Amino acid sequence: MRTEDVLAAVATGLWRWDNASGTVSLDGEAARLLGLPAEPVVLPEVAVRSRFHPVDWNEINGIVNLAVAEGTLAEARLRIMDVDGRVLRTVRSRSKPLERWSADGSLDYELIGTIQEIAEPQPGTTAVHTPITGDWRRSREAFLLDAGRALAEARSTAEVLRVAASLSMPGFNPDGLAVFGVAGDRLSVIGHHGHDAGDEGPFTDMLLETDYPAAEVVRTGRAIYLPSPEDYKRRFPATWPLAQRFDRVSWAFLPLIVAGRTMGAWMAAFKQPASFSPDERSVLTTVARMLAQALQRAGVAESERELTTGLQRSMMPQLGPEIPGMRIAARYVPTGGGLQVGGDWYDMIPLPSGRFALVIGDVQGHDVRAAGLMGQLRIAVRAYASEGHRPDAVLSRASRFLAGLCASQESAAEEDPDAQSPRFATCLYVECDPETGTLEVARAGHPDPAVRMTDGTVLMRPTAGGLPLGIVPDTDYPTTRFTLEPGETMMLCTDGLIETGGHDLDTGWARLRAVLEGDTHEAGGHEPGHLETLADLLVQAVHGPSSHHTTGPLADRREDDIAVVLLCREGAGCGCGAPSAHPVRPARRTMLTVAQAEPERISGARRQVRELLHDWADEEQVDSAVLMVSEMVTNVLMHTDGDALLVAEAVGELGERRLRVEVADSSDELPHKRHPGEMASSGRGVLLTEMLADAWGVDPRGEGKSIWFELYEQSKQPDA
């Protein structure tokens, strides 16, 4: 049986396409598949071309050119049409281009291959609705989708260039790439691939008037394709010696155009000949457009990062010189806002008295305007502090300053309806005496400071406060004084550190307390006692990978910027690291003043005592202590005209500690036991103290008295 008969039996025809003569030879089966009489025939190219759908003809033309350039098989699916424009069948063509020298010495090719009917689509359908494309076209579209996705995800110029270098184009891969940028009248290489270091030397600073392809592309905005070295040498003889040493045989130079402006040029160089067919040029042009847009996005992003980094560095001061006996660490993390700047700030200010001040604040908002207001307010606070004003005076003046700015903005808003409304700021100002550890705190709507004691216990230190800055110009800010004992660490932070991750103030504080009281050596892998490590751990807990495991109840909450400052007074059992395995248990002590005008601070006194006894063995004793403190402080406010001073101290080893609580006032009247009736609303304080305390008493003083009680911790026995 002849080969032709075997091929006809499987509906496969043979054809020979002579490009030089423009004729096509078909066997009988090939002629039948093309809708012609089933007999061998030689037809002119135009007669065969009329049998193909025009779209498919364009596809196969590009595929054949690509196969000729690469020396590979040309494969495609083709729709065969009748004279009425209806699809008769779909065939698959596989052919091999063979190079052949013509009589005039030119190089041409001849295609020899097969066509075979395939099952798609069904005959009788309208050609225009049949979704059929060539294999190369599908691979091209898939490549462009992948390239567009990869370039869209690149966030820097270096990433864009890496993506461009890794692109694997369908059928023709450049082995050398270069991206040229324009600055004024100069052309330079901003990135390259496939070249050795230093190869870009001659191209790093080139005038746009230079006779070089990339320069001409930038001047004209039109692509230049050079399929052969002869084309390059003929068109650009002056710069051909520069390109000759790279041993490339084809080049494509394409403009990088964004919004009608040519921002540079892209070169793709090939070691294998490239004919740059329409399909190939289409791929290169599309990639050049995507590359230009990616480079523009990366340039804008890098400019924004450079701007915000410089802005942040100028607004976030360096902590001052070392302070004898104290150590300071600070962190700032801009988590909100697209420009990575916000209204949070901290500062350390040397004072004329020899002391220093720590300031932390938060201007409302997460944008550039908030950062601008923050910069002005920070300078104002530093100026007032440097003049020697006390903490309350510094915040009062700062509030008046910010209110003045807001007033000017209100005037602008009347003229410009688009102007934004005024903003306020919270602030915490601490004046520190490094010799005695005395701290004077003034607070304007800001979270209270927290103190880590020498045994690792962390207490939120309640302080008197006023309205946020800028709301009411003439606002008073009372001052709270307490002492940072040797070995204790104080933390100042903005609400972003507490609430980031969807937390509220309560759950966020519980998370931070666990970090402050935790083992920094185990968690961070650093030497215990290192203040910088503790600062990193705090930020890591709320902004790092571990924070995803402790999402708070407000998961849809917008993230806020973070600022944190740590101040440690050096001493035995320093609180800036983890306690040792067998620590010496120093006394835990807290002190709180409850003024007549601030009865709401009684709840703060209860919370202080409960936090002081957070690891007490018997929870019922903790409840008893809280109840007695509440009764004693309330009695002072109800039966005297003065303030109540609460001092609570726990001493001893775990399980055997003694709690002593004293509440002092300025009245000389001693408490006495009463026997209230069932309906009485008071008179049970002494009775409760007798029932719940292990010991109690009243100590008269020169002015006033001190009522005290003691509780003795007993380790809870295991259940029988």
Automatic annotation (TrEMBL):
SUPFAM superfamilies: GAF domain-like, PP2C-like. Gene3D superfamilies: 3.30.450.40, Histidine kinase-like ATPase, C-terminal domain, PAS domain, PPM-type phosphatase domain. CDD domains: HATPase_RsbW-like. Keywords: Hydrolase. PROSITE patterns: PAS (PS50112). Residues 1-71 form the PAS domain. It holds the Pfam family GAF_2. This is Magnesium or manganese-dependent protein phosphatase.
